[in-house]
Design a protein that fits this description.
The chain is α+β, with helices and mostly antiparallel strands. It has one domain (11-85). 35% of the residues lie in helices and 9% in strands. It has helices spanning 35-53, 75-85; strands at 11-14, 22-25.
Length: 86
């Protein structure tokens, strides 16, 4: 499995052993909570277009969105915040 940060262009990762599923991550932003729905739709359309352009088959796409401003800080982020606060 490949773990990388999502980007506006998207990032595809998959597990060769499983091959039944893949993850396509997109980075998007908005100002209001309602923007999450629009960002999810844009990401799903971009993933479908990317796959279709390359001739990859797909079915049963599922989308999941996360408001990163609400996500807990990771270890590095906590250390950096502590240094800035000190």
């Amino acid at each position: 499995m490949c773990f990388r940060r999502p980007s506006p262009e998207g990032h595809l990762s998959y597990d060769l052993a499983a091959r039944a599923a893949f993850t396509f991550r997109f980075l998007d932003s908005g100002e209001a909570e309602e923007d999450i729905l629009e960002a999810t739709a844009r990401a799903e359309a971009a993933a479908e277009a990317w796959l279709a352009e390359r001739g990859y088959g797909y079915k049963n796409l599922r989308s999941q969105a996360e408001d990163r401003s609400q996500a807990p800080l990771g270890k590095r982020q906590r250390r950096a915040a502590a240094r800035q606060g000190a």
